[in-house]
């Protein structure tokens, strides 16, 4: 079905075919917008994310080369999500104080990791930050949303890599960097402690919520948040060599 639509639009310039492609792939936009809506903790309206995503979808349809051996869903996923994230960044809804707190946490994790490696604990990080475990828990709760956002932004700035996909859409000028990003992230995730690796898999690949992950692992949502935030910081630290 879609193959003929691509031919009609790309080779015969039939506008109706483009409209049908947009309608056909709106479901993909809804999935991506819904996923990001969860990540951004309802700081933005779902309909707004959907609108931003459709802009990305239209751009993807216009630029997609249907003759290449690349799945459109993979190509569009990257561009739809990129369009949504780009618009949200322009909104600048995250307080500067939250960004600063997350930077403190990330820097503390970097320092502690150099000493303890993957054996570092939350107690080590809290001590490095000079806070109690209770204060540490509250701090992680405040920055957890931005930790997800910051990783998305870092990947969006640097490459066409999609953390939840085994495929990468390569452009010649991006080929080396994209492969490096994928290699570094894969190696870092592989070296994570088992629980951190499990949380990353369930969140990004199975696309579960913190509540669902907590139920599977038999821990609290706040604990999932702590594990996830720590794992994300490690991923960002591992990518620092590319900047």
TrEMBL record:
InterPro entries: RNA_pol_sigma-70_dom, RNA_pol_sigma70, RNA_pol_sigma70_r2, RNA_pol_sigma70_r4, RNA_pol_sigma_FliA_WhiG, RNA_pol_sigma_r2, RNA_pol_sigma_r3/r4-like. The lineage of its organism: Bacteria, Bacillati, Bacillota, Clostridia, Eubacteriales. This is FliA/WhiG family RNA polymerase sigma factor. Pfam families: Sigma70_r2, Sigma70_r4. SUPFAM superfamilies: Sigma2 domain of RNA polymerase sigma factors (SSF88946), Sigma3 and sigma4 domains of RNA polymerase sigma factors (SSF88659). Keywords: DNA-binding, Sigma factor, Transcription, Transcription regulation. PROSITE patterns: SIGMA70_2. Residues 209-235 form the RNA polymerase sigma-70 domain.
């Amino acid at each position: 079905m879609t193959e003929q639509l691509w031919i009609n639009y790309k080779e015969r310039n039939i506008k109706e075919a483009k409209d049908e492609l947009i309608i056909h792939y709106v479901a993909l936009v809804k999935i991506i917008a819904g996923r990001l809506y969860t990540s951004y903790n309802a700081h933005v309206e779902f309909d707004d994310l959907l609108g931003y995503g459709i802009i990305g979808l239209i751009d993807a349809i216009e630029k997609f080369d249907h003759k290449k051996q690349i799945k459109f869903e993979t190509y569009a996923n990257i561009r739809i999500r990129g369009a949504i994230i780009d618009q949200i960044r322009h909104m600048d809804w995250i307080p500067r104080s939250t960004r600063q707190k997350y930077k403190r946490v990330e820097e503390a994790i970097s320092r502690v990791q150099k000493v303890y490696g993957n054996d570092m604990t939350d107690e080590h990080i809290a001590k490095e930050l000079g806070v109690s475990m209770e204060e540490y828990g509250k701090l992680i709760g405040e920055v957890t949303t931005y930790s997800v956002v910051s990783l998305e932004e870092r990947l969006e700035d640097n490459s066409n890599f999609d953390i939840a996909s085994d495929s990468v859409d390569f452009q010649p000028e991006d080929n080396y960097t994209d492969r490096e990003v994928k290699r570094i992230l894969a190696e870092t995730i592989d070296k994570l402690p088992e629980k951190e690796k499990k949380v990353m898999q369930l969140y990004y690949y199975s696309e579960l919520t913190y509540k669902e992950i907590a139920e599977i692992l038999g821990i609290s949502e706040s604990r999932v948040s702590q594990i996830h935030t720590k794992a994300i910081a490690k991923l960002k630290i591992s990518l620092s060599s590319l900047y």
